[in-house]
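Running co-folding for calcium ion.
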Amino acid sequence: MRYQRLTLLLWTFLLSVMAHGQDYVPGEVIVKMKGKSFQTATQKLLGKAGPSVSLKASFPQLGMHKLGLAKGLTVEQTIQELSQDPNVEYAEPNYIVKKATIEIDPSILESAGADQREFSREELLEASGAVESLGFSQNLAEVDVEQAWTELTSLSSNSSKTVVAVIDTGVHYNHAAFVATQAIWSNVGEVGLDSLGRDKRNNGIDDDGNGFIDDYRGWNFYSDTNNPMDDGRHGTHVAGIIVGVGLDIFASTLPTSRIQIMPLKFMGSDGSGTTSDAIAAINYAVANGAQVINNSWGGSSYSQALHDALKLAYDNDVVLVAAAGNYAMNNDQNDMYPANYPVPSQLSVAATSDYDNFASFSNFGRFSVHLAAPGVGILSSVPSLYSPSGTWTFMSGTSMAAPFVAGIAALVVREAPNLSAYQVKNLIMNSGDHVSSVMGKTISERRVNVNNSIIAAKAEVSTAGYAPNYLAANNSRTPASESSAKGGCGTIGSGGALPPGGGVPPGMLPALILSLLPVLVYFLIRARAKKSSRRQFERFVMKSDMRIKIGERELVGHMQTISVGGLSFEADTLLEKGGVVTMQISSPDGSEQVQVQGHIVWNEANHKYGVQFDNVRDGVVESIRHWTKRLAKSG
Ligand code: CA
């Protein structure tokens, strides 16, 4: 009961923390060089600028630098000058971003008889059931995490571990939740003995040549050391939730974690950090094998550099999870980054409570926030001044919701290693539960369901990977009138048509249309799975005409069956992967139409092309269900 009261308090209090300022580091800019010769362009630029700018950091994979400015130079003035340099693609401020948790005023908590106290392991074990229900199994919100723990024990002969980068305030890697579970990532190139018999972890040598000396357990980008210890609590709490999705971190005996946390500190103890350090951390995560990145932080300034860094992660098949933000705002109309970058493998996560209420502080967005996860009063690990193995406490925010999703993503990646990061995103969205409080507030209109996602992943074990091309075009929301049309439905690209740089080449369109005319529509998504495996999507008999629009061209075909997962057709001509199609599906009597967006996929097992639906609105499914019911009656 006390906890319920706490939740209510949060809801009323949080409206007062809607500060939403724009900020950047004085005396620093991020610059992206043009062309292929990074070195030459840089030398030219620095030669021209003379002593007024200095090189503070470089990201050669991205063609970027962080520059320091001499005294008296303003960021605005420098950006203007750099933008006119022929060697520069763009220059921008080094924006400051902040953690996405909610601070609760301790006095408010006390007056309600609650507190921000920390629990020792003994206290937790004593309280066991009660505390757990506050932590992960979530009272009335049936996220099925306990079922997942059980399901996982009987699953996956796969012994690999998924690496999740926690880009945050650091991680208390000595916390009991991580030590007993062996959940902290270890850089194998920086452990063991070197040729002189010294411990590689502290020999002062970059043993694996990745540019970081003695980075045996991640990196601290905030102070440029090899010690990513958490001095802000936030990152440790986030990491505990990620591990906790895969196992009961409150249990008296802890199993080995299937998820490994790569601690990458870029925010200080106050929970703020810079975009350039975030970019450095993302680069590190990508280069050192992270398959999932959790970003429980954000800001309102669009950064092309950060967008480009996330695109690099996407190109390396990394699942990206971002907190939607805690300003109770509509992200369709407001800037919130990184959550709003429409990178195809990114999930923007809103928060719900343990009673499946939409958290009053949580940002939302019918076209920009993908799904919801528990984020109110989540119990997880924190460092402690008094105990070297840490303690436990409650925190709230979309910061807590994001790691729920990151943990699921890690388990999905492990169960279905062939799926692309983009497919993992869609699987997680599609396997959540419909919850009324998130209707109209998220793309999927669902809250996560851990067990359903794992079961769905298991059924996808032999599915071929597919990932659309993506261009990190500027999608910042000015002018506001354009915003709602962009990035909608979790589709790819920023225009809604063929993705730039991908899709079907214009010259192939006529051939494509011709080859599609004898379309034999039947359906596929489940077909390549073994007959005994569960079917993820309902299948409907349609016997309807269908129209596919590709650019300006329209194709009419006949469809016999359809499922929410997709449909397929035979085509002799090779298609470039990545074609986005808008399909208009007519009811069998032709009286009604619905539209869905999808993209052309190649199904390796069936050797067929198909159209996979990106996201299907409930209305569409309802319509099809309704039509097929009528068919059954008339038949
Ligand atoms: Ca190294």
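Result summary
The mean pLDDT is 77.
The CA atoms of residues 509 and 550 lie 8 Å apart.
Job closed.
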